[in-house]
């Protein structure tokens, strides 16, 4: 069994744990930067921050060969990428996770640390950058390109040849029509239907989607 650590102890950690069921991976450690966060599991102790990580890495017998899943979703793609890179620099390589009931086309490309969760689809020729999340029942159609840290939330749909810039977030039930570009750090609100390109660091909402406001710069 390959040991796995999770960083992030809120709801997404529970989703990742279920996705690992029936695989040859075993969760051995759990970390979160929030000291007030309650442990979500009875059988895996929760440690806090880099101090907790360093103490665990120095003492745990299963630290060697451990892989990492960063369980941070929503609009925090920059944080997810930054943590994944920091863990890799400390010898814990990212695990690319594909749920047993997800579909990934044979010619799709998933960079390290991607998560394709239950009933999600990644179709022909799609390319996903590091630490992307394709959440429950979301779909990324043919020849889409997602840069690092993109989160496609449950039930969202990207039609063919969509390009999503780094750290973009497409929320639950949103639809992005073919051949469009979602700019870096942009956020597509739940239920929106995107019919034209979305500028970087912009929130869009509605049907058809319209700009609501500019956003603070996203990134690690």
Q: What does this 3D model show about the protein?
A:
Helix 3 links the parallel strand 4 and strand 5. The chain has helices spanning 11-20, 49-59, 77-89; strands at 2-7, 25-32, 46-48, 67-70, 93-94, 97-98, 103-104, 109-110, 115-116, 121-122, 127-128, 133-134, 139-140, 145-146, 151-152, 157-158, 163-164, 169-170, 175-176, 181-182, 187-188, 193-194, 202-205, 210-214. It is built from 3 helices and 24 strands. It folds into 2 domains: 2-94, Rossmann fold (3-Layer(aba) Sandwich); 98-209, 3 Solenoid (UDP N-Acetylglucosamine Acyltransferase, domain 1), CATH 2.160.10. The chain has an 8-stranded mixed beta sheet with strand order 6-9-12-15-18-21-23-24, with helices on one face. Helices cover 15% and strands 30% of the residues. The protein is α/β, with parallel strands linked by helices. The longest helix is centred in the middle third of the chain and has 13 residues, at 77-89. The protein is globular and about 55 Å long.
């Amino acid at each position: 069994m390959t040991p796995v650590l999770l960083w992030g102890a809120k709801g997404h950690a529970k989703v990742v744990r279920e996705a690992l069921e029936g695989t040859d991976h075993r969760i051995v450690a759990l970390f979160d930067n929030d000291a007030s966060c309650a442990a979500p599991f009875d059988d895996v102790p929760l440690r806090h921050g880099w101090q907790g990580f360093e103490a665990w890495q120095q003492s745990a017998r299963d630290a060697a060969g451990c892989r990492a899943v960063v369980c941070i979703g929503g609009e925090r793609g920059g944080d997810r990428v930054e943590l994944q890179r920091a863990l890799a620099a400390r010898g814990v390589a990212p695990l690319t996770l594909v749920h047993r009931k997800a579909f990934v086309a044979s010619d799709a490309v998933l960079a390290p640390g991607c998560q394709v969760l239950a009933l999600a689809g990644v179709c022909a020729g799609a390319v996903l950058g590091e630490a992307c999340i394709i959440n429950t029942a979301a779909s990324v159609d043919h020849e889409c390109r997602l840069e690092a840290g993109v989160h496609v939330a449950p039930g969202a749909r990207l039609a063919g040849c969509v390009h999503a810039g780094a750290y973009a977030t497409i929320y639950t039930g949103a639809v992005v029509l073919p051949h469009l570009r979602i700019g870096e750090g942009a956020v597509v609100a739940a239920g929106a239907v995107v019919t034209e390109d979305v500028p970087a660091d912009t929130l869009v909402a509605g049907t058809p989607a319209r700009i609501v406001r500019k956003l603070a710069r996203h990134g690690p």
